[in-house]
Description:
Elements: H1 8-17, H2 32-41, H3 50-72
Amino acid sequence: MLEGQPSATAQRTVAYRLAFQRLPAPFGDPTAAERLARDVAAGARLDRDERMAGYLQARTSFFDRVVLNALEREVDQVAVIAAG
């Protein structure tokens, strides 16, 4: 991995997530996350595995719901611990 570049794991994970239906956020630029994801995933080698796709879909959906629900309750800060 080159300094300042995403890891291969990050690229593959984001490439999977691009295929998922995501919960819309009621704020900000709705296309920004997809643009960032496409930039990070650029050049990723992905041999799609359905078990991995299912796992990542469930995990992504869970965290999308948790974060959006927290923001709706006006939680001031969300911390991701042990993210990598």
